[in-house]
């Protein structure tokens, strides 16, 4: 009796504009580009996919269920550029068949650098979700499914969550299957839902790949794979980017038709059903404890942090960013603090990734920059400007700084 | 070992321009790298090059059977076992314009006249066999090449850049052998829109007559197709490689540059094609926000004086050093000192220098209007005209050490994968296909 648990990640970064060392205004983000990408993805993915999910929920009268995690930075953009998407999410919320998860509002890596900031951003996100969709998130997913024992302890201590979602990485599971509920090490209350990456990636990455022996993937075939889990698992966690539908896999690949027929094929087997993450936690008992001393994520084959922190540029940029935390917060300037938080989005560091860069793969597809170097330069120029705003006196002219002489990164001032 | 249709190693009659140590630019470096790699593959190369004064070679190169039946000077270089050199007495040099050629010849004649006293012009010219205008010389050279080729055994002719195309055409036609022309640069790269019609015509004839055209980049292939009207299926791209040399020892003592100063390098001929003025405009912008930087321009060329004047005009004369043309160890030395190499070329068919810079651990900014930007991922790329962006990137490299570090380590690794061996193998494949279809 496997339950199918769908969770879709919904996120769009706030892309920076081209910002040189000669720029000095405080307009860091490319509003035009962000608006046009947001509208494009809304039309290709969010709107048609939301309509389809709504249609399926209605058709199966509560037997089809899904979960979403929508980042705060996307919610803000949708409010500005595509408010109709928000109303369709609201309609989904009202069906009672949709669960909204909690995460860091800014899609940040703050767990790794500032626990204080991490908790603040989760609370901000949960409040926003409650306000928009009338439900308080009970299940947490960290940015890029980054996870370790410590994160579980921290989330449990926050008191508001029953479960955490992360990657069913081979090296944490060993010979165990991701198709069960687990318990994090050192936790009494929260449970762990692990992504079945093989079945998830069949949809998210391989669906339209004609070199894949299983192509074309039909709803029938996929439903059979789900039913095969019967007797050897309680839940199949299918976690993927929502943009899979219509954006990563274009409509002409047949992805929407696949989804349209999937519920009936899965429900055709009487033992199968759909559950939201919270329902999974209520329905099943954890079968074992999973110990994750080292950090994992859902990225690349390494399932580690190397996509965001793998080279010297990435780690230096993020260190510089969090090094400013105290200085930023002490300004008490809401605009400065918000700009600083928007710079924390993991995407900025992902763009700086040099791994596989020469091979022109998936990293490049999602990258608005020509090269990781361009993205680093841009980010550092913005960060330098942000830092200068902090050191400015509240009134009076610009502070004069002596000319730079081999100063450490991030200290140069250009007035 | 590559085989031709009768089962022997391919023998190439290569018409080239210069060969180390007597080089003035990328063409010589490319010919050397390619020929050396071919030699290692067992391809037999007879390398024909123009030489005005033969004695220069004697100290660097072993003279081989000077009394052979050809009665022409023939040389070998120790490291190249399958390569023989033939020199044709001619004052042709790469990177010359018809005007500078004429000046040079007239100067030679004046020198000789003053040496020999009352000889007339025509006597001197007849005596040296050089023609006073470059076109006549290019064709005279072609005639000499045909004469030479009659005593050589070869399967095909491979000609490098326009001055050898007439020779290539003549030899290929008279000997009935296929012709490959190798385009290292075109008249549009060198002269922008002010093309010399005669040179353009020679280039086009060479490309049209050739059985295959080798372009050093897709950038150049595009020019060959769009500007010369050559059909795409005839034009193959073979990117250049890079030689990996040992590191030279560095001493800062005699340079006048303090060790706390950053050094940004321009290295190339100071000509319109290389965009020296964009380098200086960018330098001016960099100096508006940074102080401890020196800009070093290595090379010479017809825009050198203008570049010096421009630096002064911009008020950055004290921050810009001109070293003139450097070679060998001195180039290595300057690379060792540099923090960054900038190539703002307006139109660069390939551009070997950035690869050498990376090989010497110097990160590079290269213009997008270059062939080398097709093979380098770990480089900063700019439009040559975008001086604001060039300056932005220069400042970033100097200011953010992790950027310099990452560019260096990844770039150095990337350059190690660009080998002449691969270029030579691609050429060999083109030869084979051509010899089969002939």
Task: Describe the protein.
The complex is a heterodimer of chains A (415) and B (438). Chain A has 415 residues and is an alpha/beta fold. Chain A folds into two domains: 3-290, 7-stranded beta/alpha barrel (Alpha-Beta Barrel); 306-391. Helices cover 45% and strands 11% of the residues of chain A. Chain A is built from 18 helices and ten strands. Chain A has helices at 31-59, 72-81, 83-94, 110-113, 115-133, 149-158, 170-173, 197-204, 219-228, 255-267, 277-283, 306-309, 312-323, 325-331, 334-342, 346-350, 362-365, 372-391; strands at 3-10, 66-70, 98-100, 139-141, 163-167, 181-184, 191-195, 235-241, 273-274, 288-290. In chain A, the strands form two sheets. In chain A, strands 1, 2, 3, 8 and 9 form a five-stranded parallel β-sheet that branches. In chain A, strand 4 (139-141), helix 6 (149-158) and strand 5 (163-167) form a beta-alpha-beta unit. In chain A, helix 1 packs across helix 2 (72-81) and helix 1 (31-59) packs parallel to helix 10. The longest helix of chain A is centred in the N-terminal third of the chain and has 29 residues, at 31-59. Chain A is globular and about 65 Å long. The N and C termini of chain A lie far apart (66 Å). By secondary structure, chain B is an alpha/beta fold. Chain B has two domains: 11-241 and 420-437, Glycogen Phosphorylase B (Rossmann fold); 253-416, Rossmann fold (3-Layer(aba) Sandwich), CATH 3.40.50. Chain B is built from 16 helices and 15 strands. Chain B has a nine-stranded mixed β-sheet, with helices on both faces. In chain B, helix 1 links the parallel strand 1 and strand 2 (44-51). In chain B, helix 5 packs parallel to helix 6 (165-175) and helix 10 (276-289) packs across helix 14. The longest helix of chain B has 19 residues, at 98-116. The model of chain B is unreliable at 1-7, 53-71, 118-128 and 247-253 (pLDDT under 50). Chain A binds chain B through residues 20-22, 311-313, 315-317, 354, 357-358, 370-371, 373-374, 376-377, 380-381, 403-406, 409, 412, 414, and chain B through 260, 285, 289-292, 377-378, 380-381, 388-389, 391-393, 395-396, 399-403, 405-407, 410, 414.
């Amino acid at each position: 009796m496997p339950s199918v648990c769908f969770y879709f990640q919904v996120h769009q970064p706030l892309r920076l504009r081209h910002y040189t060392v000669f720029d000095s205004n405080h307009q860091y983000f490319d509003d035009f580009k962000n608006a046009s990408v947001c509208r494009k993805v809304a039309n290709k993915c969010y709107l048609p996919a939301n309509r389809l999910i709504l249609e399926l929920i209605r058709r199966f009268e509560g037997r089809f269920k899904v979960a979403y995690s929508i980042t705060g930075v996307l919610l803000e953009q949708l409010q500005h550029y595509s408010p109709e998407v928000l109303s369709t999410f609201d309609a989904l919320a009202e069906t009672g068949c949709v669960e909204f998860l909690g995460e860091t509002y800014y899609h940040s890596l703050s767990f790794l650098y500032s626990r204080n900031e991490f908790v603040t951003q989760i609370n901000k996100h949960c409040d926003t979700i409650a306000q928009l969709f009338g439900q308080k998130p009970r299940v947490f997913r960290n940015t890029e499914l980054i996870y370790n024992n410590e994160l579980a302890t921290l989330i449990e201590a926050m008191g508001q969550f029953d479960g955490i979602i992360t990657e069913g990485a081979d090296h944490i599971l060993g010979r165990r299957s991701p198709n069960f509920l687990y318990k994090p090490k050192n936790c009494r209350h929260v449970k762990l839902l692990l992504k079945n990456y093989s079945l998830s990636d069949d949809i998210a990455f391989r669906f339209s790949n004609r070199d894949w022996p299983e192509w074309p993937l039909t709803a029938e075939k996929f439903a059979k794979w789900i039913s095969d889990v019967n007797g050897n698992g309680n839940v199949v966690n299918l976690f993927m980017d929502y943009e899979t539908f219509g954006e990563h896999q274009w409509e002409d690949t047949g992805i929407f038709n696949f989804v349209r027929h999937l519920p009936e094929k899965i429900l055709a087997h009487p033992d199968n059903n759909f559950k939201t993450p919270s329902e999974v936690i209520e329905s099943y008992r954890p079968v074992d404890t999973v110990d994750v001393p080292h950090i994992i994520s859902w990225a690349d084959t390494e399932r580690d942090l190397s996509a965001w922190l793998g080279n010297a540029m990435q780690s230096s940029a993020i260190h510089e960013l969090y090094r400013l935390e105290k200085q930023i917060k002490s300004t008490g300037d809401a605009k400065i603090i918000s700009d600083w938080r928007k710079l924390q989005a993991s995407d900025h560091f992902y763009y700086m990734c040099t791994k596989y860069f020469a091979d022109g793969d998936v990293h490049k597809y999602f990258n608005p920059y020509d090269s990781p170097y361009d993205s680093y330069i841009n980010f550092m120029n913005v960060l330098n400007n942000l830092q200068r705003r902090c050191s400015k006196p509240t009134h009076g002219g610009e502070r004069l700084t002596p000319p730079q002489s081999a100063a450490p990164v991030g200290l140069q001032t250009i007035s | 070992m590559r085989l031709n249709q009768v089962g022997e190693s391919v023998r190439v009659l290569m018409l080239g321009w210069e060969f180390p140590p007597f080089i003035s630019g990328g063409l010589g470096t490319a010919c050397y790298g390619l020929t050396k790699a071919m030699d290692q593959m067992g391809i037999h190369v007879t390398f024909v090059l123009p030489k005005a004064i033969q004695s220069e070679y004697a100290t660097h190169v072993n003279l081989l059977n000077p009394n052979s039946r050809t009665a022409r000077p023939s040389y070998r270089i120790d490291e190249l076992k399958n390569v023989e050199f033939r020199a044709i007495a001619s004052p042709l040099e790469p990177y010359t314009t018809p005007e500078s050629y004429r000046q040079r010849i007239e100067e030679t004649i004046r020198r000789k006249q003053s040496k020999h006293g009352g000889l007339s012009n025509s006597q001197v010219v007849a005596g040296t066999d050089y023609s006073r205008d470059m076109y006549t010389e290019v064709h005279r050279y072609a005639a000499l090449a045909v004469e030479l080729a009659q005593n050589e055994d070869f399967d095909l002719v491979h000609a490098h850049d326009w001055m050898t195309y007439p020779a290539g055409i003549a030899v290929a036609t008279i000997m009935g052998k296929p012709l490959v022309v190798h385009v290292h640069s075109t008249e549009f790269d060198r002269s922008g829109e002010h093309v010399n019609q005669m040179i353009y015509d020679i280039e086009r004839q060479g490309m049209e007559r050739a059985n295959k055209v080798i372009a050093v980049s897709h950038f150049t292939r595009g020019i060959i197709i769009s500007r010369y009207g050559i059909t795409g299926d005839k034009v193959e791209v073979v990117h250049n490689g890079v030689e990996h040399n040992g590191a030279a020892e560095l001493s800062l003592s005699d340079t006048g540059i303090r060790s706390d100063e950053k050094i940004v390098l321009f290295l190339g001929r100071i000509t319109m094609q290389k965009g020296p003025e964009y380098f200086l405009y960018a330098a001016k912008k960099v100096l508006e926000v940074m102080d401890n930087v020196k800009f070093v321009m290595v090379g010479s060329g017809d825009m050198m004086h203008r570049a010096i004047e421009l630096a002064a005009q911009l008020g950055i004369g004290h921050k810009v050093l001109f070293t003139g043309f450097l070679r060998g160890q001195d180039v290595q030395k300057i690379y060792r000192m540099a923090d960054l190499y900038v190539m703002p070329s307006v139109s660069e068919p390939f551009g070997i220098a950035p690869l050498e810079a990376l090989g010497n651990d110097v990160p590079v900014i290269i213009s997008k209007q270059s062939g080398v930007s097709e093979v380098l991922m770990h480089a900063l790329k700019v439009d040559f005209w975008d001086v604001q962006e060039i300056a932005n990137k220069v400042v970033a490299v100097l200011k953010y050490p992790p950027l310099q570090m990452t560019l260096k380590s990844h770039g150095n690794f990337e350059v190690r994968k660009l080998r002449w061996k691969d270029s030579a193998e691609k050429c060999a494949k083109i030869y084979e296909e051509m010899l089969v279809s002939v």
